[in-house]
Amino acid sequence: MKILVTGSAGFIGFHVARTLLNKGHQVVGIDNLNQYYDIELKFARLNELGISKDNASRFNVSCTGELYGEQFKFIRMGIEERENLPKIFETELFDKVCHLAAQAGVRYSIENPDVYIDSNVVGYANLLECCRHHSIQHLIYASSSSVYGLNKKIPFQEDDQVDHPISLYAATKKSNELMAHTYSHLYKIPTTGLRFFTVYGPWGRPDMALFLFTEAIVQGRPIKVFNKGKMERDFTHIDDITAGIISVIEKKLPDQKDEKGLYKIYNIGNSRSVKLLDFIVEIERNLGKVALKEMLPMQPGDVQKTWANIDRLMQDYNYLPTTNIADGVKSFTDWYCNYYNITKTKAKA
Length: 349
Description:
Blueprint: E1 2-6, H1 11-22, E2 26-31, H2 39-48, H3 53-56, E3 63-65, E4 69-76, H4 84-92, E5 96-99, H5 106-111, H6 113-133, E6 138-144, H7 168-187, E7 191-196, E8 199-200, H8 209-219, E9 223-225, E10 232-233, E11 236-237, H9 238-250, H10 259-262, E12 263-268, E13 274-275, H11 276-287, E14 293-295, H12 311-317, H13 325-339
Parallel strand pairs: 1-2, 1-5, 2-4, 5-6, 6-7, 7-12, 8-11, 9-14
Antiparallel strand pairs: 3-4, 10-13
Helix pairs in contact: 1-9, 6-7, 8-11, 11-13
């Protein structure tokens, strides 16, 4: 198939694009390469896909690399570009779209709301219009566990009420689900939203806890532990997330006999909740260093616990996460030390 992967220089988008390419699909990747975090990390991901920094830096210019040749094209652009995005659809004739581009981050949305509206709402509407006018077989898009807000029912299930988001980021992700429903209803576009639960692993984002903790511990700085460590997360390794996304892209859609069959929402997580302090212990063990901890109160927009019920995704797409926390944290710290040329202290038993 020919698949558009938005956010292809991002954490999840990079892994998905690479896996699709290795499985023989044609991929067109787009990413605006903004500077929300270290842009050099984004260039490094693209380099792993064979796209040089010089080529990737150019705006609205299709480029290919030596690694995958014409099988992979990359274009630096934003999805909110209302004139340019339709041209890509007209030229490339995609079979399916995997939409992973978004302005990420819960706390950043409190300080910089405009970029979330531009990318996550305006850009998403632009993408939906392109799918509508170009006969896309299936739109798969990233939602988030943050839509559950202050939901007290554990584990989180897709039928739970998600009408009370507590961050603008969460509100934009909820809006994406509502907009997808509208387009599925009006234009019969199959749409599948995946609510990601705390994705971590190699090539991860520098603003996320595992990266921040590892960096601080290596440098001998205190780590910021919010809610005094009384947090629990359904940490999900990138390999499991990627496998789940690929299954949704490749496999036949589930029952579509009615409107509800065109519009699907799934949790995609590890289906267990891990205490934040236990997560930190794994990082310490792998780095061979004890973290200095700065215990802080809960941050605005945060929730105390997440935990995914993944029964639906297991039933429809045979999704089964297999990476435990010990192996997952090790995979990240190994990558981190290799990427930044750091010698690990012997891991603690």
